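Q: Sequence in, structure out?
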Amino acid sequence: MKFNKWTLALAAVGAVSLTSVAQAEEKMMLGSQAAAGLTSTTISGYVDTSAHWNIGRQTGTNQPAPSFGGTSKADGFNFNVAQVSLAKALDESEWASGYRADLWFGPDAGALNTQGVGASVAIRQAYVALRTPVGNGIDWKMGVFDTIVGYETLESGNNPNYTRSFGFGLEPTTHTGLLGTYRFSDSVSVSGGLANTYGAQINQRTPPTGGGEDSKTIMGSVALTAPSDWGWVAGSSLYLGAIHGYDVQTDTVSSDGTRDHYYAGLTLATPVAGMKVGAAFDYSHAKHVQAADDDNAYVYALYASFQATEKLSLHGRAEYQRLQDGDGAGQPADRTEATLTAQYDLWKNVISRAELRWDHAENNTFDVNGGNAKNTYLAALNLIYKF
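A: Exactly. Output:
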């Protein structure tokens, strides 16, 4: 460490100790580094609220249960969730580092099933982000992170529709593990990782009967994006992903506890200005080792979005779902749903949208609280403030 002449003069007459000066300067440097890390941290989040009107049905009766919905929100006003996010994004340096922590507060936090804090508080994501200078750079996440599959995300405001899809309900939500992403170019990127389990519970372990310490959940994906010189197709994307691992929900006498999930999603720009269409396929499979039928489920989904004006956008979704063992007795359950959403950005930082949803049971019924309806209808209002 270098010292200025005045410090050396004081040290010569015993007024100061060079060791103490060095320690003081080291503390100042560490303090400045900590301050730099703090100033680069961003705070963001949102508050999500809704109102549900379940047309023609009494409260809590005959309602399907999409993720973060169902009877608990029927026919009334709802505070869904508040998210607070602390993050430092990776910069462009070769050995960049950062982190992200997303905290959930409210009823939807319990439905996330991370079981990390409590019934009304949950950790959605909490990971350290790192980059290693291999080729174009590998970006890593270690900790708790969102799953790699799905057309829709956990943040409702980032989805085209307010209510969640059948496919979203079939997919895992978060994992505890390590995920690496490598971008070959602006058009091609791949991801791969290991996690403790298939499920969302933080730090959950595979029990010895399911493989123990030698069994981990594996996942991988590839994303293809049409380059900017492809005309009106530019920006369109194709995404493929797969996950295999232990799922506590399928660990029964008749199952080995493992589940496979395969996903394909397509978002396609169109020659019509402001119009995009999409498609998604989810397939979930759990092998039964003692039963005659495997636990299979799949969902086909179509999406369409149109930016009508600067403030007004329209979104539609149609789905078909088959649960091979839908009623728990080996009988399949076929369901369809159609959703129409109108979003109008009237207030700054506020997502405001109205939605109509129709659910139909093909060969059974929505049996909730003793009901036997084949069709249900929902009208919903969703307001989200993002900060």
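The first strand starts at residue 42 and ends at 54.
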